[in-house]
Amino acid sequence: MSKLLKLFQDSSSLYGSNAGFVENLYERFLEDPDSVEPSWQKKFSEIHNGADYETPHSPVVERFAQLALKSQGRLAKLQGFTEESVKKQSAVARLINHYRVRGHQIAANNPLGRTLPPPPDMDPSYYGLSEPDMDTLFDTGALYGIDRLPLRDIIANLQEIYCGSIGSEYMHIVDTQIRRWIINRLESAKANLELEPEKKLWTLKLLTAAEGIESHLHNRFVGQKRFSLEGGESLIPILDELTQGFGEKGVNEIVIGMAHRGRLNVLVNILGKSPASLFNEFAGTSPLSPGVSTGDVKYHMGFSSDISTPGGRPVHITLAFNPSHLEIINPVVEGSVKARQDRAGINGSNTVIPILIHGDAAFSGQGIIMETLNMSQTRAFSTGGTVHIVINNQIGFTTSNPLDARSTLYCTDVASMIQAPVFHVNGDDPDAVIFVTQLAMDYRMTFNKDVVIDLICYRRLGHNEADEPSTTQPLMYKKIRKLKTTRKLYAEKLIKTGLITHEQATELEQNYQKLLEAGEVVSRPVLTDGPYPYTNQWNKFLGSDWKSACNTAVSMDRLRFCNDRMQRLPTGFEMHPRVAKVMDNRRKMAAGAMPLDWGFAENMAYATLLTEKYHVRLTGQDVGRGTFVHRHAVLHNQLHNKTYTPLKHLDKDQGNAQIFDSLLSEAGVLGFEYGYSTTMPNTLVIWEAQFGDFANGAQVVIDQFISSGETKWGRMCNLVMLLPHGFEGQGPEHSSARLERYLQLCAEHNMQVCSPTTPAQIFHLLRRQMLRPYRKPLIIMSPKSLLRHKLAVSTLEDLTNGQFLPVIGEQDDINPKKVTRLVMCAGKVYYDLLETRRQDDLKHVAIARIEQLYPFPDELFKAEVGKYPQLKEFIWCQEEPQNQGAWYQSRHHFTDNLGAKISMTYAGREASAAPAVGNFRVHIEQQKAVVQSALYGKLSGK
């Protein structure tokens, strides 16, 4: 009889661990049918029966069990394997799977009590299992490391693993390897949450610190905003565990992004900011940092320090500066981390780690979250996985209702778009919090993917300390006011187990308060032995002037060397005929046989900088080719669509060239590039909008970071924005880059706004951005039609002998003494004015261009005006409507620098709510009128 039983065990696809084998095999079949044996393909196909959905795995096992019973019918009956028992086993398998899928919905992970009713399919009776089955042995699929257990114990284990203080959400992940890894981590040790005694005592100390700083500030600075962490104190043990654990795993740097809540707590208890320094900020006696003119409120400020980790290994931790726009810091942190990883070189993604801390309502409500998540696994923006921590207050802003805050079950559901696992953990169970933190950390380092810790907690106070939350949340706050703090609950737990006495717990509180009173550092030891290697990399740019001299010209030999290297393609590389023509023209340009166009000059700017060992990073939605098909920096082989980037193959010792067509995002990508540029002063970082006004979608980044980051926080950056701009009849959304908005933001020499009109000008402007000892954002109104305009050309000599000209004066042979009217403009309209002036042979009209609108070149402007002794009229001509463009933001510069006898007049479109008309015929009429009014002072011309 034993031989017959052995035969059944060996041959049945259902018996014992074979059930798990079949499920795993079926998962492989669903992902790739060819990955399993043909015989299994046939069987699975029969069961799948053409369904366009994933057949649940347990019915597959049940079907094979039925086949096994049919083939081994007499043997099965002999040994007690009935059709009923097989169905029961299949039911148990479905129940186990359902706990994995939905157990998080009934987890006891809410400090305020369970809010979701248990779904009916979590009841064993739903699967036909009843009390008599509770003591029956069933196959577990290796649950808790045991093959077979009574159903009663199986359910008890499942509830402990999936329905306790941790709700694990991971079955949406399609990667079988990742799912198996998580299952093994959660189930093999029953999610053992017990910490070692020393770890428990340290956790209590951290909770004491988290609570202590808040109570100290509350009592010492009554009524002042601090956006306290009270109710979410477990954030501090999470961050401590991450910094120490990552340090032990070889991480050198951690960059943290977070909004207001708990920020001061993190600064003091994790990064080691001096309490005395924080108290001075509350008192208003803290001095401004170098380069800062306005400063910012204390709960926006950043900080960095070196923290000791196991073995004495230092980890540099940076908390990024953040405005009130909450989650907008996310792509900025990712960009900074990417730059640091690039700087670190090989394995940089595992030596620099991003941590993002979110609010629950913001995580589900703000689109920048989706953009940042979507960037996480792309070539241009991947940082090898981010640890996300959601401080889940369960109401977001105090007055909000979750029913109004989102349309999903969890605030974290947006993370499922990248199949990130989410661990919903009870903030009042510090042991569970530490377990989840270790799991998230290991997941990130193992798979280099994002992971989410949903710290379910509450606000003990309102949104800020002046808010009274019970006015809008009366029932919730009746419950909250009866709750003991997390520290008190944990202290009582340790006292009950005899690990600590009540007196020792009280002493911990008192000692912490004494340190605060003394203004001493209360975090882990902050290492001060030597400066962080990159701390001073921006210092040489402090106090520099935009007029700082530099030579941007390049020798003829260098230009021809770069062009020659950019023409060398891999053997068998077949270009598109139009691209081949462009490359052939560039050969002629380098030889001096053709005038230089925009694409040639721009590529030469990048190439020459790279050969001088500067780095270049260019991103945007169509930058490889260029939206207007002018750049062709990335070439596509017409035979197999593989790409080749000549700028990467100029010289063996060149700088790093990164050119990526980005995802369809403005705010996320621009924020990322800003973060990158604040970290790498010797990298030319460029973001190009597909059309200039597409930058509207990133206005928060422009307002809160690019234009004001230095005056608020002392954060310098070198970012270049290329914004295609020009009125060419393409309608309201494809004409204006909204020049007026950038000029409105200009003050204190915070950034540069330029409108180059020749290939040589873009060549020198881009090179100047790196070669000068000056680092400010550069906003470029880049052209569209000028990319191929017959007059918008340059010569090789313009590159070898010239420089960027903030003002370009009259270029034709006109007698200055006869000029009575000076028309000044910026951008494309210059060529319309020039062609009409030449056609009408106007000898008394001079035309000049301002190529740099800010900082305004006063001296050069005055010098240009001074060339014309008989000048009576100064005309500012622009394509944009009068309430837009440069007129209102620049005319005070004109007035300040014009003589009293010279009149000043505006020539351009009338004020308009929209930037441009949609009708092409009307556009042509308007453009002609603009030119006529500038040259003649009236619309009719002569």
Write out key terms for the chains shown:
942 residues, alpha/beta, Rossmann fold, seven-stranded mixed β-sheet, 40% helix, disordered N terminus
Brief synopsis:
The protein is built from 33 helices and 25 strands.
Secondary-structure map:
Layout: H1 2-11, H2 18-31, H3 38-48, H4 57-71, H5 73-79, H6 83-102, E1 137-139, E2 148-150, H7 151-162, E3 166-169, H8 176-187, H9 197-220, H10 235-248, E4 253-258, H11 263-269, H12 275-283, E5 303-308, E6 314-319, H13 329-344, E7 352-359, H14 360-365, H15 367-375, E8 387-392, H16 402-405, E9 422-426, H17 430-447, E10 451-456, H18 474-480, H19 486-496, H20 502-517, E11 526-527, H21 556-567, H22 577-591, H23 598-611, E12 615-620, E13 635-636, E14 643-644, E15 657-661, H24 667-677, E16 683-688, H25 699-706, H26 709-713, E17 720-724, H27 739-745, E18 752-754, H28 759-771, E19 778-782, H29 796-801, E20 807-808, E21 821-825, H30 829-840, E22 845-850, E23 852-854, H31 858-865, E24 873-881, H32 887-897, E25 903-909, H33 920-936
Parallel strand pairs: 4-6, 4-7, 7-8, 8-10, 9-10, 12-15, 12-16, 16-17, 17-19, 18-19, 21-22, 21-24, 24-25
Antiparallel strand pairs: 1-2, 3-9, 5-6, 5-11, 13-14, 18-23, 20-22
Helix pairs in contact: 2-4, 4-5, 4-6, 6-7, 9-10, 9-11, 9-19, 9-20, 10-17, 13-24, 21-22, 21-23, 23-28, 24-25, 30-33
